[in-house]
Each structure stands twice: as structure tokens, then as C-alpha cells.
């Protein structure tokens, strides 16, 4: 039997997988700071005895789209958006350093600053602890000032948010959705990164693009299935032609 | 079942929860002292099918791995404790807090709850109670023959008595505040309850330290901004629609396959 059937089958399988990726992006169109996954098809030639005349298609998550998302003003003192490039540093559950663009910060019951999905936000001196009974102000360069409600005339500089800007080519998205350096190396702090408090960065998923991509994947899938049925018809025809006249 | 369908389903779920939050905000747009909620979306874990850096052949390496996402969800909701509008009502038992703090309310089970709703009334014993009939803590009793009640910005409650030049002091309204007011648990009837995440209450006098001052003859309205909520609603609806579309498209793909293969 011809291998056309198998090649068309892999094509269909991976189109469906590409649809899975695309659905993931659409499902996170409202997640703050979410970075869209990019997908691409990859040509996997057949190796082994014989001529490499066939190539299977494989779908890969080719990486992450790091373009900034839209910024909404919320006027909430603990919503922080990064202007242009850069990342917040958070502590992942395993204790390692990870990066996020998610800026919907909040205080936990111990007064520690966390992101909306519960990761500790890192300052230059470790996790940022907000003193009780104070108002917070976050400056453009990430300096966090606490203004005690009892003594507004004596603000305390709490810490400064760690802001980094590693080369996007070296960053990968991990299983927990956080961004990490390719080989786990900690990034250098970058004094050029600017933040804006009272604003929140949304997801960078482009709905229109994803919808078109969705149609594209669906049609491609149908084409592969069509190829499957064509292969079957060819097989049938040839077996009929070769049938011994009885 | 096909994972692509389930991913889109998590999106539908999350958008629907977000719509519930928006609807609740809109439903409470005229509730005194109501604080709006915000839904916090988060992406779910990724599954690694193939590790980045794996080999695609003897001499070549995959540029990236294959990691499939599993969707999104609403991780939680958060109360936004920003100040609501102060509305003048000219009713002498309406009290608004301008700034931080909560009124303390004694619930029938003996627990203290907290509220920003200052539309107080008198019960049959002349005590200040909430619209739900729960006592203000510490209790303030207005004598039957009082001609007028005055509440100062520092929370002092006085009454003008007949045949008495000096007003009689009836009590003091105290306020409570929390390290993390977003951690308070809303329990309905405009009341909040202390939780482990809110921290313990700090009690003080209005106008002192960090506490806001109180204002007689005014009420704090909800901090829901209708325009903002309507925009949220449109955004949620469009998110819901695209996820529905994703489900139907994936379904059509599967249908096409079962019909043709």
C-alpha cells in the first residue's frame, strides 16, 4: 500500500494539533499579560533505507509571541504595566526565577506582593513585603514607596521591582506558563525598563488573526482527509484494474 | 475526547464566570457601599509532548519542543476597594466614610462583620441598626425624646435634648481597617467578614491616623462604573463567541473526518 495514506494521516493529525494550540490562545484572550503561542509546521523527512522522497508534516509550538499586549488603565494602585520591552521577575513554585508580564499585583495576608496568579513578585532584595497600613506608590522605574497612613509626611522606600530585559530569543515558556531563560540563567537587571502603575497589560492574542488561522487549520485538515479518501479510491481502482478476469 | 475541544471549553467556562462577575457588579450598581469585583484570568498548565532541544534526526535538533496548553480559567475574583461616590441625602442617620475603614456590625450570631453601607436606622429600642436590623458596634442608643442627632466627622454622636442647652453625647462610631481589604469575604447584606487573608482588624476613631472621616447626611454609593462594566461585558461576550467558534470549528473537523474516512 502506498504511503500517501500515512503522509495524509500525519498531516491531518497535526492540523488538529495546530487547532489545539490556536484554541489555547483564544481561551486566554482575556488573561492579563498572556503571551500567545506561535505554531508552525515542520518538515520531517523520512530517513532510513531507500530514497528520502517522503516528508511528514509535524506541528510544533515554534515559540512565543513576545509583542506587547494592549494596556488598559484601571487606576488601581497595584496594577502595573511594563512599557515596551521588559519583564517582571517572579519566584516560581519550585523557587526558581521566572519572568512574567502579568502586572495585576496584590498583597497576600503576610503583606507580600504577588501576581494575580499567586507568584511572589521579586524586588532587588527578594520578595517584596508591603508594610501594613500604608498606601503604595510604584514609580516609573519600579521603586515602590509605602506611605504610612499614620505619617503621610514620612514615606518609606520599600524596595525596587526587579525588571529585566533579556534577549527574547533566549526566552522560552515553561509548563507553568511562566517565561524562563533557555538554560535557566538568571537575567541581569535592566535600569531602562519602565513601568506604569494604575494600568494593566492584557493578553497579546490577536483575535482576528486567530480566527482566520482557525479557519485555515480547519480547511487544511479537510484537505488532508480528502487526500486520505483519494488514496483509498486510488487503491480501489488499482485493485479493480489488476483483478484477474474470471 | 479531542483536547482541542476541551481547551476551547475552558475558555467558555472562564468567560462565563467573568460574565457572572460583570452581571453581579451591574446588578449592584445602586447598592450602598458595594465594592466591585474583578475576575482574574490565568492560563492553565502546559503539557510537554516533546522537550525543546530534542533530536529530530541524528544530526539535527528540534528548534523548540511541543508543548500543548490546556486552556484558561478564572483563578479568583478580587474586590476593588476604591472609594464610591458620596451622595448627599440630607437624612440625619445616613453616614458615609470618606477614606479607609469599615463600620463594625454585630451579627445575630455574635460575630462582628464589616460594612461601608452607612444607611442606619433606629430599632424599637432606639439603637442604631443597619437596614438588615443588625446593631452597630459599639452600640449607640438615641433617647426617645431627642430632638435631633448630630454625627461629627470624628464619629462622635450627640443629641439635642429638650430643655438642655448642651447636646448630650450618645456614643462614638468606631471604624475598623485591614491590611488587605481585598481579602475580606463578602457575605451578602452589604457585609464583609474577616478572613486569614484580610488580616486582623485595626480599630480606631474616624479621622484619626489613617482612618477616613465620617460624613452625616451622605451615603457612599457603589464604586461600579457602568461604562467600564459595559466594555467588560462586550469583551467577555466576544471572548465567549470566539471560543464557541473554536468549539464548532473543531467539531466540524471531527465531523468531516468521521463522515469521510
Summarize the structure.
Chain A is α+β, with helices and mostly antiparallel strands. Chain A has two helices and 18 strands.
Structural notes for this entry:
The complex is a heterodimer of chains A (246) and B (261). Chain A is 24% helix and 31% strand. Chain A has two helices and 18 strands. Chain A has helices at 4-27, 207-241; strands at 37-45, 55-64, 71-73, 80-83, 87-91, 97-100, 106-107, 113-114, 120-123, 126-127, 134-138, 143-148, 156-160, 163-164, 171-173, 179-181, 194-197, 199-201. In chain A, the strands form seven sheets. In chain A, strands 5, 6, 9, 10 and 14 form a five-stranded antiparallel β-sheet that branches. In chain A, strands 11-12-13 form a three-stranded antiparallel β-sheet, with no helix packed on it. In chain A, helix 1 packs antiparallel against helix 2 (207-241). The relative contact order of chain A is 0.21. By secondary structure, chain B is of the alpha+beta class. Chain B folds into two domains: 3-81 and 229-260, no CATH class; 86-220, no CATH class. The longest helix of chain B has 35 residues, at 226-260. Chain B is elongated, with a radius of gyration of 27 Å. At the A-B interface, helix 1, strand 1, strand 2, strand 7 and helix 2 of A face helix 1, strand 1, strand 2, strand 3 and strand 4 of B.
Query: What's the N-to-C terminus distance of chain B?
Result: 18 Å
- Low-confidence parts of chain A: none
Radius of gyration of chain A using CA atoms only: 26 Å
Which range does the strand content of chain B fall in?
25-35%
The largest β sheet of chain B comes out as:
5 strands, antiparallel
Low-confidence stretches of chain B: none
The ordered H/E elements of chain B are HEEEEEEEEEEEEEEEEEEEEH
Quaternary structure annotation = heterodimer
Main structural class of chain A: alpha+beta
Count of separate DSSP helical elements of chain A = 2
Rg of chain B (C-alpha, Å): 27 Å
Shape of chain B: elongated
InterPro entries (chain B): Flag_bb_rod_N (IPR001444), Flagellar_basal_body_rod_CS (IPR019776), Flagellar_FlgE/F/G (IPR020013), Flg_bb/hook_C_dom (IPR010930), FlgE/F/G-like (IPR037925), FlgF (IPR012836), FlgG_G_neg (IPR012834), LlgE_F_G-like_D1 (IPR053967)
Subcellular location (chain B): Bacterial flagellum basal body
Keywords (chain B): Bacterial flagellum, Cell projection, Cilium, Flagellum
Domain Flagellar basal-body/hook protein C-terminal (chain B): 215-259
Amino acid at each position: 500500500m502506498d504511503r500517501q495514506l500515512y503522509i495524509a494521516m500525519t498531516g491531518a493529525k497535526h492540523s488538529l494539533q495546530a487547532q489545539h494550540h490556536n484554541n489555547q490562545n483564544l481561551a486566554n484572550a482575556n488573561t492579563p499579560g498572556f503571551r500567545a503561542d506561535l505554531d508552525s509546521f515542520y518538515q520531517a523527512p523520512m530517513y532510513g533505507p531507500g530514497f528520502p522522497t517522503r516528508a511528514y508534516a509535524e506541528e510544533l509550538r515554534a515559540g512565543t509571541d513576545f509583542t506587547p499586549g494592549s494596556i488598559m488603565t484601571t487606576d488601581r494602585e497595584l496594577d502595573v504595566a511594563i512599557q515596551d520591552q521588559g519583564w517582571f521577575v517572579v519566584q516560581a513554585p519550585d523557587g526558581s526565577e521566572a519572568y512574567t508580564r502579568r502586572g495585576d499585583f496584590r498583597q497576600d495576608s503576610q503583606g507580600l506582593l504577588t501576581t494575580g496568579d499567586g507568584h511572589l513578585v521579586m524586588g532587588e532584595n527578594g520578595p517584596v513585603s508591603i508594610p501594613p497600613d500604608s498606601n503604595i506608590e510604584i514609580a516609573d522605574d519600579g521603586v515602590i514607596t509605602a506611605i504610612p497612613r499614620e505619617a503621610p509626611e514620612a514615606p518609606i522606600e520599600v524596595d525596587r521591582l526587579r525588571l529585566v530585559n533579556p534577549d527574547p530569543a533566549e526566552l522560552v515558556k515553561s509548563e507553568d506558563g511562566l517565561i524562563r531563560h533557555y538554560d535557566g540563567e538568571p537575567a541581569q537587571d535592566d535600569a531602562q525598563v519602565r513601568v506604569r502603575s494604575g494600568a494593566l497589560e492584557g493578553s497579546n492574542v490577536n483575535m482576528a488573526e486567530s480566527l482566520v488561522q482557525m479557519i485555515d487549520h480547519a480547511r487544511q485538515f479537510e484537505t488532508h482527509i480528502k487526500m486520505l479518501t483519494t488514496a483509498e479510491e486510488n487503491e480501489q481502482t488499482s485493485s479493480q484494474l489488476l483483478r484477474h478476469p474470471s | 475526547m479531542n483536547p482541542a475541544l476541551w481547551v476551547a471549553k475552558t475558555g467558555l467556562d472562564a468567560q462565563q464566570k467573568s460574565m457572572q462577575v460583570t452581571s453581579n457588579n451591574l446588578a449592584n450598581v445602586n447598592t450602598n457601599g458595594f465594592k466591585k469585583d474583578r475576575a482574574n484570568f490565568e492560563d492553565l498548565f502546559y503539557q510537554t509532548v516533546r522537550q525543546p532541544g530534542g533530536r529530530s534526526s541524528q544530526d539535527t535538533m528540534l528548534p523548540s519542543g511541543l508543548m500543548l496548553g490546556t486552556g484558561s480559567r478564572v483563578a479568583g475574583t478580587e474586590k476593588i476597594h476604591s472609594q464610591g461616590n458620596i451622595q448627599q441625602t440630607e437624612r440625619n442617620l445616613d453616614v458615609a466614610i470618606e477614606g479607609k475603614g469599615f463600620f463594625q456590625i454585630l451579627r445575630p450570631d455574635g460575630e462582628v462583620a464589616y460594612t461601608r453601607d452607612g444607611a442606619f436606622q433606629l430599632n424599637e429600642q432606639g439603637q442604631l441598626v443597619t437596614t438588615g436590623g443588625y446593631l452597630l458596634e459599639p452600640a449607640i442608643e438615641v433617647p426617645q425624646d431627642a430632638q435631633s442627632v448630630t454625627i461629627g466627622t470624628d464619629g462622635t454622636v450627640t443629641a439635642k435634648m429638650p430643655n438642655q442647652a448642651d447636646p448630650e453625647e450618645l456614643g462614638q462610631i468606631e471604624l475598623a481597617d485591614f491590611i488587605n481589604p481585598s481579602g475580606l469575604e463578602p457575605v451578602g447584606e452589604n457585609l464583609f467578614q474577616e478572613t486569614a487573608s484580610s488580616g486582623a482588624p485595626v480599630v480606631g476613631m474616624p479621622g484619626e491616623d489613617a482612618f477616613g472621616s465620617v460624613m452625616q447626611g451622605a451615603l457612599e454609593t457603589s464604586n461600579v462604573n457602568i461604562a467600564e462594566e459595559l466594555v467588560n461585558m462586550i469583551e467577555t461576550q466576544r471572548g465567549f463567541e470566539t471560543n464557541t467558534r473554536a468549539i464548532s470549528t473543531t467539531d466540524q473537523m471531527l465531523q468531516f473526518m468521521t463522515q469521510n474516512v
